[in-house]
Design a protein that fits this description.
- The chain has nine helices and eleven strands.
- It is about 40% helix and about 20% strand.
- With about 325 residues, it is α+β, with helices and mostly antiparallel strands.
- The strands form three sheets. The chain has a six-stranded antiparallel β-sheet with strand order 1-2-3-4-6-5, covered by helices on one side. The protein has a three-stranded antiparallel β-sheet with strand order 7-9-10. It has a two-stranded antiparallel sheet with strand order 8-11.
- Helix 3 packs antiparallel against helix 4.
- The radius of gyration is 25 Å and the shape is elongated.
Length: about 325
């Protein structure tokens, strides 16, 4: 539909006006629309069955106390187009940047902080008996400030124990030969690890053609990025499917953030002091280079402490919202 198109819902008679098209997926097209209550997003599909699962997920989320997982469901109805009836649902419009756009603007140091928020949301989702399935940066938006992770396309959300119905190869453990497509928490956690790798690399890469050792290949990609090395242990565990609980992975990511500065500062080996040096040498002021290193070291501590404080505030704000 073109911008400016207007319609009334067939049954509920709510008015809509198209502002622009904002997305398209396997189950339908998404439009930014104007409603009586303000801007919203409408998803229109070809048949009702294709949207039923997504509608049910959004309805379920709306009943979860303190839910900030997906957009709020506002209306479910049909639209008449050229004599044909098509189902649609109206949901909250989440205004913000896509995850990758946000990282490009603000810097890769934000990626692990937002991953902590994402893992908290996944933990709540899993406890409700669902797996996101098609977890990828395209389905994640950052709203705010205060900055907050939200996801807006829950079409791939699947009940735990069933087969994942929608996936994107790069974030799919089946594509990498590191697991099946059974809907379980570890499936989402694999995707979460790949999202952090993508955010830091700022691009996706293809798997080796022979695919003989995909895990070794992914570890090599981690080693090639200094910003990923502090998270190598937790990411490797997620890629192996070792985490059965998003909460455990979240704690390990937070620990890696706290310990990151210690990882990045490599100890400088120096010879043992010469106890026979003269008093003059012992009391002489340190060379200029040493003073500069000490100053740089203090600056690094201040910057690291500031970042950790910011990370903690963002994490706490994300939990309160």
């Amino acid at each position: 539909m073109s911008p400016g198109t207007k319609w009334l819902g067939k049954w509920n008679r709510n008015p809509y006006r198209v502002i622009k098209k904002i997305g398209e997926g396997a189950t339908g097209s998404v439009y930014l629309v104007a409603t009586r209550a303000g801007q919203a997003a409408v998803k229109i599909g070809e048949n009702k069955l294709s949207l039923t699962s997504e509608i049910n997920v959004l309805r379920h989320f709306s009943k979860v106390q303190g839910n900030v997982l997906g957009p709020s469901l506002l209306d479910v109805d049909d639209i008449e187009i050229s004599g044909e009836s098509y189902p649609f649902f109206c949901m909250e419009y989440l205004n913000g940047d896509s995850l990758l756009s946000f990282i490009q603007k603000k810097g890769t140091e934000w990626a692990p902080v937002l991953l902590v928020q994402l893992l908290g949301d996944l933990d709540r989702l899993h406890r409700e008996g669902w797996v996101f399935g098609d977890l990828k940066p395209d389905n994640i938006i950052v709203t705010g400030p205060p900055f907050r992770i939200r996801w807006f396309d829950v079409g791939g959300t699947t009940k735990i124990g069933r087969a994942v119905k929608e996936y994107t190869e790069f974030y799919d453990r089946g594509y990498w030969g590191l697991g099946d497509r059974k809907a379980e928490p570890s499936y989402d956690l694999f995707a979460a690890a790949m999202i952090l790798i993508h955010c830091i690399h700022q691009s996706r890469f293809e798997k080796p053609r022979d695919n003989k050792n995909p895990l070794e290949f992914l570890i090599k990609q981690m080693n090639s990025e200094p910003s990923l090395r502090p998270f190598k242990k937790v990411l490797t565990a997620a890629l192996k499917g070792k985490y059965k609980d998003a909460q455990l992975m979240k704690k390990d990511v937070m620990a890696a953030i706290e310990n990151r500065s210690g990882f990045e500062r490599q100890p400088v080996s120096s010879p043992a002091p010469n106890i026979k040096k003269s008093r003059r040498n012992r009391t002489a002021p340190p060379p200029r280079k040493i003073r500069e290193k000490s100053k740089s070291y203090r600056v690094e501590i201040v910057l690291t402490a500031s970042f950790l404080f910011l990370s903690s505030i963002l994490y706490l704000v994300g939990q309160w919202m």
